[in-house]
Specification:
The structure is a homodimer of 323-residue chains. The first copy, chain A, is an alpha+beta fold. Chain A contains ten helices and ten strands. Chain A folds into two domains: 174 residues, Formiminotransferase-cyclodeaminase, Chain B, domain 1 (2-Layer Sandwich), CATH 3.30.990; 99 residues, Formiminotransferase, C-terminal subdomain (Alpha-Beta Plaits).
């Protein structure tokens, strides 16, 4: 069960602390994919992945280091936060079900509360209260407002004491789908077109439910960008977003000049894009050579002679026969 | 270095012989992906894959069993053949270079000649003479014509004796790109449209160089099929074939109703299709989460604090921030 964790910590200025957090996350079996710190936000993001149990262990260790080394009473940055270890989401990779990541969030959350004495809010797909599905609502009032909030029964954490940790605040632990940062360039120098397209496409103004979009003036001569986040690519996939951008831009006589994926993209999102555009409605990942090889256990070759070749079933036979 | 072998044997009627060949191919580290036998062709195809050395060993063992158990003097089928083990192509998977498969073909070919005393022709990308690049020319005259052919210097095998093995004939060992069996349905009941489209698309009649195409009347009501083999998907990719079919069909007012991939497809072909249609001109496989995980050695995460997050570089940061 492959899982990714994209953990956010309230430390972006002391490289040695960020490095200690990254080293803690690198538990046996964990692969650290990215680590970045932002001084203005005073915040860092560590992305790591592997088998669920290993990633859960890495997440707990990283949180423990952050709790020990970050004092939020001294913390001033531009980014909202409730804790030293602020947000710990588990993201399913490959065929891993969301329910598995919900279970990881619950067990890591309970452990953080029990062993580190830090209160934990469950959010996203792991939320136990509807109001906690969206992260901004979980973070409302920030670190400084936690004590007052926890005094209200509606503000009680899901695990741990009903009072903030004196220096580390609280942690939001959750589960969510992988997010895709997908930007599309429009062949126009007019920012007004990009603005109109972004407004038409994004969910918050009546467009696609899983899409956030903003117009961006990038450094490309004669082109504007619609910068999107796809927050649930299985429900609102990349082709749906691209084709809506294309259609809305065409209303202004503007074409799509290209696109880019910023950072990582799940394999499933690319395979779904190929399937969509190739119109290969019944294509399955079981047909992908390398994927079948990498999961040898799933390979159940037909017994020899059981199946009759129809001359098309096997690509190789066609190859050596010459169609 | 992942490699696939799609070996063709001149036995399609005795299941126990096909089973013995399959078992021989299943050398340590080899994964048998498919095995099928055709009684009319009197032929079977065994597809197996793994690391190059393991696949080479499996190929040799399978050929040895075929040489021992198949007597071509008794063999009558509808499919042309020159040997008991007829064709043994090595196909690069993933990032494996073709040159690696050429080297495998040469070493397995030399071993077949030395240990089994069967003459070997190198074909495809492994061919040492231009006339041997195309398999039909290597197989011309079939088993029955081998002795006369080998008497001519131009017909000498690349390895082994200049005379056919009495019962096993000769073997064509080679290297070639993965072949994709890609069929497109047209929303028309008119076979004449599918025929015209297939003729326009296939290389042999002036279309795309890497495409073989035939019209097919499948069981789908109101639809005809253009049945294609893409013999070199890196040069002539799936989108090139599909879009040419679409354009040619549109000349008759006919739309594409869907497509199918028969059998296996290389991951690279699907990723290239996604990249093409998403217009993500600079997308790389290094951005695919699961692929980076599977090749841990290739992962070189930036040292913590070295890179400043720009709020877009890392999908997770955007996710937890809320664009």
């Amino acid at each position: 069960m492959l899982v990714e964790c994209v953990a956010n910590f309230s430390e972006g200025r002391r490289p040695e602390v960020v490095a200690a957090i990254v080293e803690a996350a690198r538990a046996p079996g964990v692969s650290v994919l990215d680590a970045s710190a932002d001084a203005d936000h005073h915040r860092s993001v560590v992305t790591f992945a592997g088998e669920g149990a290993a990633v859960a262990e890495g997440a707990f260790r990283a949180v423990a280091v952050a709790v020990a080394q970050i004092d939020l009473r001294q913390h001033r940055g531009t980014h909202p936060r409730i804790g030293a270890a602020d947000v710990v989401p588990f993201v399913p990779l490959g065929d891993t079900p969301m329910a598995y990541c919900v279970a990881l969030a619950e067990s890591v959350g309970a452990r953080i509360a029990a062993e580190l004495n830090v209160p934990v809010y469950l959010y996203g797909d792991a939320a136990r209260r509807p109001a906690r599905r969206e992260l901004p609502r979980v973070r409302r009032g920030e670190f400084e407002g936690l004590r007052a909030r926890m005094a209200d029964p509606a503000g009680r954490p899901d695990f741990g004491p009903a009072a903030p940790h004196p220096t580390a605040g609280a942690v939001a632990v959750g589960a969510r789908p992988a997010l895709i940062a997908f930007n599309v360039w429009l062949a126009t120098p007019e920012v007004s077109v990009a603005d109109a397209v972004a407004r038409a496409v994004r969910g918050s103004s009546g467009g696609l439910v899983g899409v956030r979009a903003l117009p961006m003036d990038t450094a490309r001569r004669g082109q504007m960008q619609v910068s999107m986040n796809l927050v649930d690519f299985r429900r609102t996939p990349m082709p749906a977003a691209l084709e809506m951008v294309r259609r809305e831009a065409a209303r202004f006589g503007v074409a799509v000049a290209g696109s880019e994926v910023v950072g990582m993209v799940p394999l499933a999102a690319l395979l779904a894009s190929a399937q969509y555009y190739l119109q290969a409605h019944e294509l399955t990942t079981a047909q992908v050579l390398e994927l079948q090889l990498l999961d040898l256990a799933a390979v159940e070759p037909a017994a020899a002679g059981e199946r009759t070749a129809d001359g098309r079933r096997d690509g190789g036979q066609s190859a050596e026969s010459g169609v």
